[in-house]
Amino acid sequence: MSNINHKFAAIDIGSNAVRLLFYNIYLDLTGEPNFKKVALTRVPIRLGEDVFVTNKISDKKIELLKKTLIAFRNLIEVHEVMDYMACATSAMREAENAAEVRTYLKAETGIEIKTITGDMEADLIFQNHIAESMNPNRAYLYIDVGGGSTEITLFYEGEKRYSQSFQVGTVRMLHDKTTKETWDLLKLKCIEIAHRHQNIIGIGSGGNVIKLQKLAGAAEGTPISRHLLKEVYQELKELSYEERMRKYGLNPDRADVIVPAAEIFLFITKHTDIKNIIVPKMGLSDGIIHHMYEEYLKKDKHFLDR
Question: pLDDT at position 284, please?
Fold first, then answer.
């Protein structure tokens, strides 16, 4: 059996931050694939600040993104990855100048950016195989809260039964760019899900819910209850931006978005009657890695052996 590591990289260009994630994939002693995170680099460019207000990505943000992608390209070369993929979500897909920006960045950095729809984003997250560890007799709602959008995916009997993306996101909320109609639609869908399924378990995704779990005092690997989440939210909401940083050691780009993130999670869990949220620390970047792995398997089922 080969001991060779096959390294893959994923670039997630979100509305709040841009991430570069590396994974080693290799066969374990039983011959099963093992996915091992190697490194994560996060840069808080916050493209949504431009797009959700002016509908365009500004020259300043474009240059910041260019410098970030050049740095990412250099890291990818140093890591000698087998393959990589760059995906952009809500902010890029809504920007009027998105095509122009992608063309410019490809010429300047050599990195081709694929803008994905909300449905594609949910499907990539599904590539994480989170359904495999679920109780087939229970319903689970995967909630991925981003800067520009929120994706909810319903799993039941180990299968994806429903998935939809909503223009409800933390950066969008900071700029008061989420409409009442969107909130009403999200509420309606949550109520419909709750009517069809009882005792739904939530699965939270994103850096904000990981931080909220820690602030609530929930140990890693244990669920955070909606009751605890609400208590943490109330405390954070009463503090100023600066006080959140000082009291909890939050980074500047986390201290503002964590409150709207908690509001989104509380809104969804309220209308689906979810009492507990599991936080598996798996998101879009991880899903991109799994997607690339699956594509390689289609071409060669034994590529990990070499």
Answer: 86
